[in-house]
Amino acid sequence: MQRARAPGRSGDPERQPSRRDLLAGAGAAAGLLLLGCRGDPVDVRDQAAIAAGGSRGYPGPAIDLAFWTGFTGGDRPPMERLIERFNREHDNITVRMSVTRWGDFYQKVPAAVDSGHGPDVAVMHADQLATAAVHRTILPLDEVTQALGLGAADFTRTLWDAGVFRGRRYGIPLDVHPLGLYYNRAVLADAGIGDAALPRSRRDYLAVLEHLKGRGIQGSWVSPVLYTGGLMFQSLLWQSGGELFSEDGARATFNSEAGVEALGFLLDLIKRGYSPRDVGQDADSIAFTNNRNAFIWNGIWMINTYRAIPGLRWGVLPVPAIGARRAVWANSHNLVLPRQPSTGAGQGRLKASVVFVDWLSRHSLEWAKAGMVPARREARESAAFQRMTEQATFAEQLPVVRFPPAIAGVDSVRASTLDLAVNEAVLLRTAPREALNRAAREADALLSDNLRKFGRAL
How many CA atoms lie within 13 A of 299 on its CB side? Predict the structure, then answer.
């Protein structure tokens, strides 16, 4: 994750796509992914059973495994060190990591798998598993996790359930990366605000922002793009009791009263003068690093970015409870096994791949150095992790994290409808209710198309 946004998740900073561009793109992406469904697909359940030997070791001949990820930023070196260690410890398995920006990754993998040249192991975000599963890009892992003895108790129930689609498991969580509230110590100290006044609630947050405003400081900049304004909206929606979509994936529900309230809160920050208008992409984070912004809701991936800036004095808190309940947006990197050609060699590769997946899952504490909360409970409860002060603070939110819903194709739907609505409202071009209602109508049409292609989410 790079610059001042999530790694590999950014768009073109020089051009924000129009609503028409994104609606057309959503349809094109869905059509591209459908390539993975053509032909005579092998029975992925049988292939998963082949891999169910667990981690007892791979007794076969020397083998090279292709491991594909989107770790292009500061998260790449920690993963490279883990792979180097695995290769030293395993004489007959060599893992080679290929890295592609996430935006390209989710187009590259289905096409490669369909052609028979996909990776042996890959990493996917939890919100991408449903789409990959419906296209049979990845294998169900119920037999694998049973052989490995893994269950919710090894992670958390929310993390564990995020890997399930239509009653089958497709991902093994490696980490969780939620939003947090970063604060600039220098800005707050100059305004006479100490640690005792750091905000945990809506009242506290607004009181601090009003105090900062009295000192001429706009303390909480609202971005009109997904990172970070869109993720703020999703967190606030859940805090207000709303949902993004219906459980079956048939309709958008983000235009509820909870959605209007959530988007209204963001606009109030601007209208009250706590945020500038027309905040450019990444401008909120740039202002934070230049001691012009006191608070920023951003992901755990910014830990290593802010640590690397000389002289920047900062800390992090859980996202404050603005609504009636605690909730915060999060996502999770999951280990997946892409579908392999149904050959004898492919069966051997699956057995070796499970050994690697099991080893990597068990070593998620080292992965925490990439600026992540490890998924494994034993890693989070270790003394070593508790010494990672910032990551441990993010981990306090695990009981209230919320993941995007497990609905095939929903990521494209959200990007081409809801994200534009948030953008238009935050830029004060359209009233919140009008923007959300229009986006919901467009989302419903796209969801209807998805239902015809993929069936219901449940």
Answer: 28
| Residue whose structure tokens are 């909730």 | 327
Q: What are the C-alpha distances in Å from 17 to residues 24, 160, 247, 444? A: 11, 35, 29, 20
Note the pLDDT tens digit of each residue in 424-446.
Answer: 999 999 999 999 999 999 999 99
pLDDT band at 45 (very low <50, low <70, confident <90, very high): low
Reported as a single tens digit per residue, the pLDDT across 4-32 is 333 333 333 333 444 434 333 433 333 33
Q: What is the dihedral of CA 49, 51, 53, 55, to 10 degrees?
A: -150
One-letter identity of residue 109: V
Q: Is 196 exposed, middle or buried (0-12, 13-18, 19+ CB in 10 A)?
A: exposed
366 Cβ contact partners less than 8 Å away, ≥ 6 residues apart: 78, 81, 82
Residues 162 and 403 sit within 8 Å (Cβ to Cβ): yes
3-state secondary structure (DSSP) of residue 222: coil
Please write the tens of the pLDDT for every residue from 124-163.
999 999 999 999 999 999 999 999 999 999 999 999 999 9
Distance between CA atoms of residues 365 and 363, nearest Å? 5
Q: What is the pLDDT of residue 221?
A: 97
Pick from 358, 338, 360: nearest CA to 349: 338
- The answer to whether 74 touches 304, Cβ cutoff 8 Å, is yes
| CB atoms closer than 10 angstroms to residue 20 | 9
CA distance 135 to 139: 10
Percent of the chain clearing pLDDT 70 (strictly above): 88
Domains for the chain: give ranges and CATH numbers: 41-174+332-395 (3.40.190.10), 178-330+409-454 (3.40.190.10)
pTM greater than 0.85: yes
Is the CA virtual torsion 141, 94, 176, 179 positive or negative? Answer: negative
